[in-house]
Amino acid sequence: MLCTWNGSIADELGVPCVTFSVMGAFSMLAVRHLADEVGNDDAVREVPRFPVPPIRIPRAELPNFLRTHHYSFINSLNSLQADCFGLAMNTSSDLEKPYCEIYRRQGYVKRAYFLGPVASLPLPAAAAAEERKEKDKKKNKCIIMDWLDSKPDHSVAYVSFGSMAHAKDAQLDELALGLDASGKSFLWVVRGKEDWNSPKGWEERVQVQDRGLIIRAWAPQTAILGHPAVGAFVTHCGWNSILETVAAGLPVLTWPVFFEQFITERQVTEVLGIGEPLWPDGAAAGLRSERNQEHEVVPGQNVARALTGFMGAGGRGDAARIKVMDLAAKARAAVAQGGSSHRDFHRLVDDLMAAAAAKRRTFMHPFSLSRTSICVSLIN
């Protein structure tokens, strides 16, 4: 979706262009509507023309182009979406119904298709069987899964901030101390800071107590989220991670880092109700982070307090878990045979086939599509 030149290339080749959004409908619409308020420098912005509940975001948490009023890139994206054959999103109308409806009826795009959550898509039977065999072969060698297998249900906090966001060492130190002080077991994936040296004696202490596992490389996130030992996900609110945690039915503690992640945090905590901010005091003060440049370090005691309050017996995470389990069922239904995303996928294929047939009849253009080629190109 971030490649604004692909529409013109598709036009030159005489083929339809469908843009694929890496953001959800909620965040995409919020960015679009906020960008319409040119010159608004209010300390707290309310997203205009949005469904209930009203969404208010401190100006300090908005993407940089909205704070500086440099709209050329978002305007080019909006133009691309308007001119293309259609817009596909990794979401479902069951998950984001009022926001999907706005895309369908407001004329922002010619056609809208809601195809997700992709994380919930069922594998073909043969591929799934092969995957199970491979998992069985590697199970005894998989450090992560073996470690999780040894933990009680819902007892582990999974901590990961994706592959693009990087924290400075001081923040990693505070996070480490907070995880330790929480008394909760944790699985922490540290990406992009493989050379970080944890506080003296910390790593040895949590390993001896068998309370923590630190992974300094890629980790199988969907498998981790789906493990019964995991009780909460401390996440940066990247959209793929949110969809994966919804598919797994897992509540979240939010720690957004940059771009639309602060907007997505509002959706997760205020609209869906499947989690809460890890550092609400910092949010109230506007002290939040950007990629590679934290304005304020989240104190370790705040991390510990959030985890114990959210994951403790009878804690606030229980209500969030009930809500996210309901969303997980809706996500599975959306991608199942006859579900909303399943229908939209076939509608997309049918629309492309019809466009190809019309082009051949009208212009005798050599462009042709088969149902198989369309499906393969979308999946890949």
TrEMBL record:
An example molecular function term from Gene Ontology annotations: UDP-glycosyltransferase activity
Keyword Repeat: no
Keywords carried by this UniProt record: Glycosyltransferase, Transferase
Superkingdom of the organism of origin: Eukaryota
UniProt keyword Acyltransferase, yes or no: no
Matches recorded under Pfam families: UDPGT
InterPro entries given in the database record: UDP_glucos_trans, UDP_glycos_trans_CS
Family in the record: Belongs to the UDP-glycosyltransferase family.
UniProt-recorded name of the protein: UDP-glycosyltransferases domain-containing protein
Protein species of origin: Triticum aestivum
